[in-house]
Amino acid sequence: MSNKPIVLTQQLIAVVPAAGAGKRMLANCPKQYLNIDDKTILEHTVDRLLSHPLISKVIISLSENDEYFPRTSLVNNKNIQTVIGGKERVDSVLAGLKVIDPQVNPWVLVHDAARPCVTHDDISRLISLCLEKQTGGLLAAPVRDTMKRSFSSDKEVNQVSKTVDRESLWHALTPQMYQVSELKEAIINGLSNNAELTDESSAIELANIPSLLVSASSENIKITHPDDLALAAFFLAKQNKKYIQKQQLQETE
Fold this sequence. Notes:
By secondary structure, the chain is an alpha/beta fold. The protein is built from six helices and eleven strands. Strands 5-4-1-6-10-7-11 form a seven-stranded mixed beta sheet, sandwiched between helices.
C-alpha cells in the first residue's frame, strides 16, 4: 500500500443498518441495544465510527417501531441522521443510500451495528486502498480453520460431505466501502432479480464490479450469540487501554 496521505475533498458518510431484531441473542430487546459497560452496542459502534477523523456523519437505519433509540445518547447528535429501515439488512442499507447525494459524497462506508470493535487503523487502511485503487472493497479476515461442507441425513444431524480448501477463503467483515451510485444501482438490480444479498459485496459481485479484500483484525467480531458479548467487552477494554496509553505517550513527548 502507498504511504501517501489520504486526500479527501469531503469527509465520508457511514451507513449503519440497525433495524434487525437479532433473535439469536435470545434477549428481550434487539441485540444492538444490549449493554456493554453502560453503553449500548449501537452507541459503541457509532462512537467508534464518528471518532474516526475521516468520517463526519453516520446514517442509522432503524425499525419503524424502534422504541429504544430515543433512550440512547445518539438521539441528539447533529452528526447522526436516522431513516426507516426495512425487513432485511439490504433494505435498510438501501434506505440509507437513498438519502446520500452522490455528487457531494461519492463514496460510502457500510458497517454492521453489532461490530463495535472495528479499529481506526483498519478503517483507515480500507479507505486508503479504495481511494488509491479507485475500487470499492471490504475488510476481511483469511479463514484459518479447516473448513467442512456438510450434508444432513435427517433434520437434526449433520455429517461431513467434504473438506473445503481454505486457501482462498475469507471471512467478510465490515465496513465495506463502495461508490454510492454503483452500490445503490447494484442493490436495486439485485433485488429486482430476487438475488440473496447478504452484504454489499454480494450486490457488487452480481453487478460484475471488482472488490478489494483488505485484511483486518480478527477483533472485529460481529455480536451474534450471547457468548459474543463478553468477548466484545474484552476487546473494547483492551483497545481503550491501548488508546489511553498512546495518548499518554504523546503527551510526554
